[in-house]
Amino acid sequence: MTAPTSLRAAAPEALPHDTRPLPPWVPFAVAAVAVAVALALRGVLGSGPVLTTILAAIVFAVLLNLVSRQVEGSRRAADRTVTTVVSAMFVAAMVPLASLIWTVLTRGSGRVDVEFFTATMRNVIGEGGGAMHAILGTLIITALAALISVPIGMLTAIYLVEYGGGGRLARAVTFLVDVMTGIPSIVAGLFAYAMFALIFGPGVRFGIGGAVALSVLMVPVVVRSVEEMLKLVPAELREASYALGVPKWRTILKVVLPAAAAGIGTGVTLAVARVIGETAPLLLIVGTTTSLNLNPFDGRMATLPVFAYFSFVTPGARPEPALDRAWTAALVLMLIVLSLNLVARLIARRFAPAGGR
Amino acid sequence: MTSLTPTTGLTPEPAPAGAPPPPRAPAARSQTPRRLGDRVFSGLSTSAGVLILITLAGVALFLVTESLPVLSADAADLPEGGFLDYLLPLLFGTVLAAVLALLFATPLAIGIALFISHYAPRRVARTLGYLTDLLAAIPSVIYGLWGANVLAPYVVPTYGWLEANLGFLPFFTGPVSASGRTILTAGVVLAVMILPIMAAINREVFLQTPSLHEEAALALGATRWEMIRMTVLPYGRSGVVGGAMLGLGRALGETIAVLLVLSASGGISFNLIGQANPPTIPSNIAAQFPEATGLDVNLLIATGLVLFVLTFAINFAARAVVARRAEFDGASG
């Protein structure tokens, strides 16, 4: 092995003072050579664009290592190779993600029209139809989930930070919140179904069940972020308030929570963004329907993710219109999630305490 | 209620002002619960904490009660071979897809995290970090649609090449699936899905490397890679392991993306590119549940219970790894 395992071992063959690093134009020259080689090989092998790019990257890494090894020594050569590999990994990982966003944008824009947002799928076969019922269903169920989880999550966080004091119950709750974070969404759906099936009998489907399932996923996220934010509030603020004779509950409501408001707003928005795209639990306990149902306590409701799923899986006799609807639903869903993230970011920036980083 | 006149400053009720603080502290604390507002508020927040305990106990309890009929059912009512024979291919498929995803995602996540934390220019790095956070939020149904429509057709020629050249390996024996919707494709989609969250965790850990360590390495003449290898990677190792296990937990429980991508029909097989792929527990539940009645529902819930226990164990191990790191940090200052 030429690569030293520690600096101590490297010391005898430390970077010589008289060797200069490669001139800055050399990597570009090597890159040009690599591209040329890859293009030449493309003629021979008949490789596609992806394979050509990969080949060019490999040739570039190897050539640059060889050149650098001659001029700068093996340590700098290894450094250059790792730089190439890490950058290539980053680019390679971005390709599928870029492809995903591009696909959703191009294929989803086909049905972004008035009808999609104002019509339901009632009595629609083939072309036309819309997802108004699904969009409203998603909004209703997510709002209900937030209504359930935000108070529970915030109170739990307040308990953990202000009242628990590291006691046995507080440690147990912290642990269980961690466990809840890892619950697979489908298990949350099964839980909601199993619970409501015991009460209302088997085969139960309604919107509030979906809200309960989403709450199971949302509560731990809210607890975590609110807890972090409450911990950031300086103890001096609380102590100053106590010293003024303010009772603890008023201190929490009037001093601690306002100080953490921005962070809490960000955390809650991100939690909503996380659950609004959930499909699996809603598939189990809410089901789907083609008509508008605004009553979450009675009968199946359509939701955007489930709508996209069923449009793709059971497109009907002529698949194209259903597939278009599926992609547009995906696009709308993605835009909702991304704008929620942006809103969270804006809340964090706008209301950040002065002097904060 | 108390008056907040800044001139007096102190609570009027307890001992006279001017008493030494240490003996007063316990007395003041024992006063607090007596106030009605405090009692109500602490009661509310404590019961919220207890509600979480109850919810989780409820998850376990309801899943178990709904699974019990499977154990007591007649063998004739169950699928052929009983519950275990039904479960094993599902469990195999779940673990296989998740492990494949982890194999692809772990090195890439480390690469992305290193790129953002130590290679990209700082201004660019912030935007990139923000971008990976955004990508982590994209709903799984979108990843599923993309995997089934874009990725699966695209990889079919590659699978053909794998069969032709590496067909002697048990993983790549033919015949190749014509749709490309195999367990390997599902693994790739899962890898793409868990990549942002894993990269975000790794990035956080790498950024926490004490800059004194890094600067010391650089001052001793280390190149950037030597600095990373000697300070960043050892420091972030347990964080990377913990992040990978959290990613594994996500991949195990992922439902809709796998359901959309995977065309499942087979049993246990190590052939990654064939036509008969094992289903996974969550995708099987989602596929069968809408149509299921009677004992089939209990059967599906029982597999869900197994998944719950599995992800619980994985997450538990992940927390233990991360917690050990935290203790280590505390010890080393």
From TrEMBL, chain B:
Q: Which residues form the signal peptide?
A: none
Family per similarity comment: Belongs to the binding-protein-dependent transport system permease family. CysTW subfamily.
Q: What does it do?
A: Part of the binding-protein-dependent transport system for phosphate; probably responsible for the translocation of the substrate across the membrane.
Name any GO cellular component annotation.
plasma membrane
Q: Tell me which residues make up the ABC transmembrane type-1 domain.
A: 91-318
Q: In the UniProt record, does the keyword GTP-binding occur?
A: no
The keyword Membrane is assigned to this record = yes
Please list the residue ranges that the record marks as compositionally biased, kind Pro residues. Answer: 13-25
Name the CDD domains on file: TM_PBP2 (cd06261)
- Which segments show compositional bias classed as Low complexity? 1-12
Q: Which SUPFAM superfamilies match?
A: MetI-like
Q: Which PROSITE patterns match?
A: ABC_TM1
> One Pfam family for this entry, by name?
BPD_transp_1
Q: What is this protein called?
A: Phosphate transport system permease protein
What are the boundaries of the region Disordered? 1-33
Q: How does it sit in the membrane?
A: Multi-pass membrane protein
Query: Where found, per UniProt?
Result: Cell membrane
Question: Keywords for this entry?
Answer: Cell membrane, Membrane, Phosphate transport, Transmembrane, Transmembrane helix, Transport
Q: Among the record's GO biological process terms, what is one?
A: phosphate ion transport
Question: What GO molecular-function term can you cite, just one?
Answer: phosphate transmembrane transporter activity
